[in-house]
Design the sequence.
């Protein structure tokens, strides 16, 4: 029987032992777990970026994987903890829109987690990752059925950060979902939908109108738009940082003009 | 039978394969080990920060876990390698005060590791993490008893970095133990001891006199003191970096004035 | 039977879920794998640094380990994927020189990977780590023999970044292979070959002529050359950053003058 898989995605960074402590709690409950870090470098409190990065990842894992995601500016307030079943996977985290792209991708059953017997005791006001989400994920990995954690809800939070908005007959306004380690700018324009029709991508006063299929096709240092491995259009520079060249950060507005 | 757990905490960072190499050595000796990274981002040579971060973590792991910690400015000098048994856990690392908070939390048996048959051969002068500490931790995880590694000592190094000092009738001097990824300033004032009596926390010319229970209770951008998940008082800014606002770094002095 | 070990080394960094996704693909193919991160902080596209860091690591792992390495500026172009057998270990990655130090250290059999039935379908143009290298490594870990992946080739890429060049009767020109987290400058001068004969190491207008055995032997803040745990000469400052003091970066030229 395969060992249960749990992935972790947070904005906790790597300079604190927060993630390690969550793993200690998980192994205490589920000693057989295999834990995979997706990333802990989500920009602090950036729910949209966390939701995007989770959406990039979960489908590449086997069915039955438990995805534990904590980007949680409202920790300690009344926002609800949830367990989501979708596409044969499980998701555990706060009900703040972090799972919006999961909801859009697969039929989802969302439960408000209220069964405090699965929590650590006492529950702190500042670290629900350790006290609520980690033990709930570990019990799920142990085979506790989702229904045990709480009742199904339908008024869970859905956000639209991954959908551009039409701004003119031949123009759409979008945003920067993520900037990767290489400085590639990941937009929220789906490649399949916009790639063929793109005339140019504008950010501030600058525009990019070259499209390419392979990084290696483009001269050194030149900006171009590419269908990234994310499925979204990305602005890149061959062997350079597009984010630095364009001076663009997370959440910046983008305008896509069509032919 | 559960697989043996080994945690790692170092100041090695993630840009070098030092930590990966230690894991290779561990798996070579103990193929069944499960290894958890606590953090490798301890500021270089900062024994107090390493000791604090370890103290935050170890109790959340199951009994029998081996905690391997390497913050070791004296590598290659005569400082001793030690194995510590405390509270049902094991600790392996240099005898330089790194385990001071463990000693304060639980009755500890400390051994000077001298049994070189458990070391890698040869032992380098610059990388005892790989050549001494990793194989010793792996043999412990394999079930070799602590007594096999060397004799109990009582003159091991204890440091007091986690204890504020009384400076006046109603004032205590403390320090910054750690700054977390969000810029929260972790002090060495125990929350249980000082929280109720705090009038203000001073750093340089600035003071903070607001206390709060939840991040979400505080207006955007305002400084406050909170009982952190660490058990110590922390200075925070709701959705901002207190360390940046106050210009405070690791080891900076703090004054706590009582009511 | 021990679980199969797979190490990962990339220039993907930790802010993206690229590495996590590769692990999802690996566990999907080989659920028993144990995965160890060597480092993901190779400077983007720096094949020489990646090759050096891999060379520092692989010998510390048990025989049979699969080392998956992706530093791949030519992704999407015609460079070949390869599987290398050397010294009882396996290596998977692009044929761009990344394995040059492996070839120099051990008799190597190199195969051009063409058996696309082991790839993910479809193969993207930008993420061969996920679509080709990860599943190939996982199938190797599952016991698929190397010969199944493609034919042996002899015209694979070998680079000489790890070999200094004689520039005068008593002088050699070398380079910076890596700068570690502490700011130590790792050169490509083998300690065994050059240590005894060194008069001084020059970089730009500055020179270092002190050699030491232990960090602790050297006064605070002073530059010195030491035989690092890498086997190469390293320029260090006791409890400081040599790279910052000397203003030296990756790939910078160094001159070693002999006695």
Sequence:
């Amino acid at each position: 029987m395969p060992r249960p898989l749990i992935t972790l995605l947070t904005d906790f960074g790597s300079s604190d032992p927060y993630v390690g402590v969550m793993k200690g709690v998980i192994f205490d409950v589920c000693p057989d777990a295999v834990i995979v870090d997706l990333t802990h470098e989500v920009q602090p409190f950036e729910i949209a970026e966390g939701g995007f990065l989770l959406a990039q990842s979960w489908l590449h894992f086997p069915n039955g994987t438990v995805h534990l995601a904590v980007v949680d500016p409202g920790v300690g307030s009344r926002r609800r903890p949830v367990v989501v079943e979708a596409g044969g996977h499980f998701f555990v985290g706060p009900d703040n829109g972090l799972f919006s792209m999961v909801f859009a991708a697969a039929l989802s059953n969302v439960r408000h987690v209220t069964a405090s017997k699965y929590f650590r005791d006492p529950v702190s006001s500042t670290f629900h990752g350790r006290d609520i989400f980690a033990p709930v994920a570990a019990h799920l990995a142990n085979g506790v059925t989702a229904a045990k954690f709480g009742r199904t809800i339908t008024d869970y939070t859905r956000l639209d950060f991954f959908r551009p908005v039409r701004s003119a007959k031949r123009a759409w306004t979008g945003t920067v979902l993520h900037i990767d380690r290489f400085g590639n700018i990941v937009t929220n324009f789906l490649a399949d939908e916009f790639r063929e029709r793109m005339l140019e991508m504008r950010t501030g006063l600058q525009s990019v109108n070259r499209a390419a299929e392979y990084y290696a096709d483009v001269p050194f240092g030149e900006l171009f738009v590419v269908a990234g491995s994310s499925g979204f259009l990305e602005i890149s520079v061959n062997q350079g940082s597009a984010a630095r060249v364009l001076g663009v950060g997370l959440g910046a507005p983008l305008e896509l003009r069509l032919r």
